[in-house]
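CATEGORY: protein folding

GOAL: derive structure tokens
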Amino acid sequence: MKALWAAAATAVGAAAYGLSRPGVRETLKEDLETVKRRDPAARNDFVSVVSYPGMHAIWAHRGLHRLWQHDAGKVPARLMSQLVRTLTGVEIHPGAEIGRRFFIDHANGVVIGETSEIGDDVMLYHQVTLGGTSMAQTKRHPTIGNHVLVGAGAKILGPVVVGDNSAIGANAVVVKDVAADSSAVGIPATVRPKRKDGAASAKADVETSTKRPDFVLEDPALWI
């Protein structure tokens, strides 16, 4: 019991220290705004903080990624990332590079490999894998551009590049590059330009986010 109280006190102290650092509170505020913008079920910030395991995994990753930058921190970061996986259902390797306003909805069974690179304003649904196809210790995981949506169950494998403003359909298996402003659906995924008939782009518009959703899935193959 004493050990649990000590761990809790340490966690509270670490959180208080983190929130006191410049930029951390602003980032947290941005994250909470992202939850409300991405998920219409998000009612308030308190619910978002305590009940969104995807956000917990992302917050943990930010700290572990910094730890990973130091040789002495690689083993602790890797071990703690496995604890985060157990607690949240999301496995993000501490070596992965992730941009701002990243969101994982219905977080469960998500895997993001070591050399993955994810841009800003990216959204993943449950059961998504950003995996490798090689045992070589080189770049072997996907690079995801800005303003990309990845539907439930999609697998993006190997060092492929998914361009900005693209959408990956539910359960798609992507093994080749996806051009910007495209959608990819099927197994293996077929890439095609996004519709030009006025359907909303996947690009997030922060200034008008209260007026329209960021992601309108115009193609039934993308529905989640």
Notes: The longest helix spans residues 2-20. Residues 2-17, 197-213 have pLDDT under 50 and may be disordered. Residues 2-217 form a domain with the UDP N-Acetylglucosamine Acyltransferase; domain 1 fold (CATH 2.160.10.10). The first strand starts at residue 90 and ends at 92.
